[in-house]
Write a structure and sequence with these properties.
Helices cover 66% and strands 0% of the residues. It has 8 helices and no strands. The protein is mostly helical.
């Protein structure tokens, strides 16, 4: 869905924000991370992917909660409108069965995950390498920094999820598009969501120091995703053995 508001012409801050996001995510291309490449080649066991899904579900739910918290901190109704339109699509255009968390649960059901719990202990608050999934937003966190973090996620997920789709089809032959809609819909929507977040960040940026906060947010999120991937690459098959106990 296209945002209700757009800013034309794009200001110098819009261009700088876009450049910052592109430079960081291209310099550290997460779609080329060994974990993602291994996933795309179908080299993980089915139980490893089930364990992966169970670890990702709580974070998917916390993402939406954190996003709404950041939106609520904005004084500008213009900015809030764009943020809420983004959240509108994340929540299935207010159809609970099409909310993105529900789509992920559908995927988990399709691959026969033995446990589906959005409040499960996913390790995010115990294991430093899994901090990406915490999605904590402190009350005093600058909005521009938060927007950098969210923009990084929206920017990198389509490339990563394309690789996931390739791997899922190899690991679970015959799984249909309906079951993996969660991944397809992010590939479709996230580029638009990225642009919306940059529009909002543009409204919040007043100085070079604000641009630096945005940069910090992007870099922090890219680093935390990379750390999670490295942990998954090293530990996912071992974690999967727990499903056999």
């Amino acid at each position: 869905m296209t945002a209700t508001f757009s800013l034309e012409p794009k200001t110098k801050f819009y261009q700088k924000l876009h450049q910052i996001l592109s430079e960081i995510t291209h310099a550290q291309d997460l779609s080329q991370h060994p974990f993602v490449q291994r996933f795309s080649r179908g080299e993980f066991s089915q139980d490893a992917i089930r364990q992966f899904a169970m670890k990702m579900l709580p974070g998917s739910n916390r993402f939406n909660m954190a996003f709404l918290k950041v939106a609520s901190k904005m004084d500008s109704y213009h900015a809030r409108t764009i943020m809420l339109e983004n959240a509108f699509t994340e929540h299935g255009e207010l159809n609970p069965n099409k909310a993105h968390v529900a789509l992920f649960i559908r995927f988990m059901e399709g691959i026969n995950c033995p446990k589906i719990d959005i409040n499960a202990d996913d390790g995010a608050f115990r294991i430093p390498e899994l901090r990406f999934k915490k999605f904590e937003v402190c009350d005093d966190e600058p909005v521009v920094l938060s927007l950098g973090r969210f923009a990084a996620i929206e920017q990198v997920l389509p490339g990563v999820f394309t690789k996931y789709i390739e791997g899922i089809r190899k690991i679970f032959p015959g799984l249909d598009d309906h079951t993996i809609e969660y991944f397809h819909i992010h590939c479709h929507l996230d580029p638009e969501h990225t642009d919306e977040l940059i529009q909002v960040a543009e409204m919040c940026v007043k100085s070079e120091s604000d641009l630096e906060l945005f940069r910090q947010g992007v870099q922090d999120m890219v680093n935390s995703i990379a750390d999670m991937f490295s942990w998954m690459n090293a530990n996912l098959e071992t974690e999967a053995l727990k499903l056999q106990d």
